[in-house]
TrEMBL record:
Its EC number is 5.6.2.3. This is RecBCD enzyme subunit RecD. Residues 537-581 form the UvrD-like helicase C-terminal domain. The lineage of its organism: Bacteria, Pseudomonadati, Pseudomonadota, Gammaproteobacteria, Lysobacterales. SUPFAM superfamilies: P-loop containing nucleoside triphosphate hydrolases. It catalyses: ATP + H2O = ADP + phosphate + H(+). ATP binds at G161, G162, P163, G164, T165, G166, K167, T168. Belongs to the RecD family. Keywords: ATP-binding, DNA damage, DNA repair, DNA-binding, Exonuclease, Helicase, Hydrolase, Isomerase, Nuclease, Nucleotide-binding. In the RecBCD complex, RecB has a slow 3'-5' helicase, an exonuclease activity and loads RecA onto ssDNA, RecD has a fast 5'-3' helicase activity, while RecC stimulates the ATPase and processivity of the RecB helicase and contributes to recognition of the Chi site. A helicase/nuclease that prepares dsDNA breaks (DSB) for recombinational DNA repair. Binds to DSBs and unwinds DNA via a highly rapid and processive ATP-dependent bidirectional helicase activity. Unwinds dsDNA until it encounters a Chi (crossover hotspot instigator) sequence from the 3' direction. Cuts ssDNA a few nucleotides 3' to the Chi site. The properties and activities of the enzyme are changed at Chi. The Chi-altered holoenzyme produces a long 3'-ssDNA overhang and facilitates RecA-binding to the ssDNA for homologous DNA recombination and repair. Gene3D superfamilies: P-loop containing nucleotide triphosphate hydrolases, RecBCD complex, subunit RecD, N-terminal domain. It comes from the Bacteria.
Amino acid sequence: MNRPLPAAAPADERAIDQTLAQWVFKRTDSALLASAVRAASSAEGHGHSCAWLTDPQTDAGFDADALDVLRQHAWVGDGSRFTPFVLDAQNRFYLRRNWQHETKLAAAILQRCQQRTLPIPADTLTDDLDALFAGMPAGNTDWQRAAVAAVPGARFFVLTGGPGTGKTTTVVRMLLMLLRHARACGLPALPSIALAAPTGKAAQRLVQAIAKGKAELQTTLPKEDFRDLLPLIPHADARTLHRLLGYRPMENTFSHSARNPLAEDIVVVDEASMVDLAMMCQLLEALRPDAVLILLGDPGQLASVDAGSVLADIVASAPSNQLPPGMAALLAPMLQNAPGTTTNDAALAGQVLTLTHSWRAGSGLQRGIEALRDTPDPAWLDTLLSARADGDLHLRHCPNPHALRACVDSWIERHVDLLQALLTSSSIDAGAALQNLHQLQILSALRDGPFGAQGLNELISRQLAARFGIDSNHAWYHGRPVIITRNDYARGLFNGDVGIALQGADGLRVWFELSDRDGNAGLRSFSPRALPAHESAWAITIHRSQGSEYRDVAVVLPPDEDNRILTRELVYTAISRARNHAEMWVTDTSLRAALSRPIQRQGGLRERLVPGKA
Ligand SMILES: Nc1ncnc2c1ncn2[C@@H]1O[C@H](COP(=O)(O)OP(=O)(O)OP(=O)(O)O)[C@@H](O)[C@H]1O
C-alpha cells in the first residue's frame, strides 16, 4: 500500500512542507513516508507538534496497512533508537525534534512533580497565611491561599486564571513563603529569583505588577519578618525568556542548558500560554533539579505561535483544583471551602491551581470575558447578538469596507480628545504620549487585506489626516505610533515594542519606554531611520497584543466566516486585553463561527503528563 504524493499543494501548505516531502521521496522512494512527512511538517506549520495520521477530521487517509508499512520503514522508529521520524503507539507521527521536545518536557515535569514534599507544619502555614492575607476575607481568596500554602516543597508549580483573578498578587505571596521557608524547601537560605516572560512587553508588565504588589504588602503585612523579605523579590528586572536563557541569535542556540544551568533558585514565568514546546523544553533543561519553576498564565488565550499548546496541555492533564489526599487534609482547615481530593497517582495534582474569582471590581467587561473563556452559553450569545451589548462589551455590524470606515470614523470621534492631544499638541512629553497610546488599541484578527492590521493602519491614517490635518503623504508624522516587528539586540529594541514619533527640538524622534540592562525602565528615542523593521500601530494583530493590556480595545474580525484564523481563543485573547471597554467590529456569522471553533492542537504532551496514558 503506497499513496502517491498529491500533485497540488493545499492552499495553506508551506513551501518547506513540499520541499521536505520531495527530499524524503527522492532518497527513500517511498511516497507513503513522504506523505506522512509532509503531513507532519504541515501540521508543525499550524502549531501542532505531530500529525495524527488516523485523524478522521483531517482525513489523512492512513489505514492500518499503511501504518504497518510506515512502522517498518528504516527512517521511522518509536523513539527508542535514532530515526528522523517517530510514529508512536497512538499513530502520532513526529518530526524527531518535536517528539524529543515533547517527551523530554513531559519527563522533566513529571520528575519535578515527583520531588514534591510538604515541608511546613500546619500551624506555621496557618499563621503565615493569616499574615499574608491580612484584611482579605476567606472564601474568594481560598485558591490564592491554597497556592501560597502549596508552593513550599514544589519544584514545579502552575498558577492560572483569567485576567484580574489575582495571579500576580498571589505569586508575590508565594515568593515570600518560599523565601521564609527556604531551607525547609531545600533552597539556599537566601534564594535568588528570576522573573521572565516570553515578550519584552509582558516582562515589563510583570515587573510593574510585582512592584505594585510589593508596595501594597509593605504597608499591609503585619509581620516584620515577612516585610524584611520583600527586598529579595526583584521588581526592576524581568527578562524575556530568550534573554534569561542566553539566546545566541547568530547560532540559534542558548547559553543556558543542562550543562550550564541557570544560577537562579526560583524562576517565575508570566504569560506562559505564549511559550512553545521547544522553548519550554529549553527552560526546563536549563533549571537545576533543586530550583523551583512557577508558571503563570491563562490557558484560555491563544496558544504559542510555534508548535505546542504547552500551558493548556499541562492544565488539562491535572485534575482541576483537586488536591492529593495528604495536601487536601493539610490545607482544608485553612480554607473556607474544603478543596476536592483526587488520587495520589494524579501526577500534577496540587501543583496546577486555577484562580477563579475576578478582583476587577465593577468591571462591566467581566461577564463577557468569563462567557468567552469557554464555549459560550448559547443563550448568552443570542442575547449579546440581539442586544448588541453586554455591559461594556459592544458589537458593531461590520460586513464590508464601507462599514469598516464608518466604525473607524466613530472610533475617532469617541476618542477625539485623546487623539487630538497625541497628534496636534506640540508640548506633549514622550511619557504622557506613550501613556495615552496605552489607553486605546485596535486589534485585528488578520495582518493583510482591508480588515487586516495593515489595511486598517492605512485607513486610520487617511481618516486621521482628514480630521486633524496631518500630511498623510508622509509616512512619518508627529503622533504616529509604531510597533517593532524584528528584534534588534544592538539597539535593545524588540519585536512588539511600541513607540511614538514626536517632533521636538532635534527633529522627529521615535520614543520608547525600554528597560536597560539592569531592568530599569526609562524613555529612549531613536531617529526613524535607525529603527529596525516596524509598522504603524494604530491597529495591530491580536497575536501581537498578547501580554499587553489597554483601557479600550476595538476588535476587528473579517466577515469571511470560513477564515480558519477565527477561533474562540482569538476572540477571548482580544477581549481580555481590555480593562474597561471593548467593542467588536464583526458580522454575527463570523463571530458565531469564531466562537464555535476552539483551537485544537495535535500533540501528545497532555497524555504524556498522565503516567500510563501516553
Ligand atoms: N485577594 C484579593 N483581595 C483584594 N484585591 C485583590 C485580591 N487579589 C487581587 N486583588 C486585586 O485585583 C487586581 C488584579 O490582581 P492581579 O494583578 O494580581 O491579577 P492578575 O491575574 O495577575 O491580572 P492580569 O491577568 O491582568 O495580569 C489588582 O488590583 C489586585 O490588587
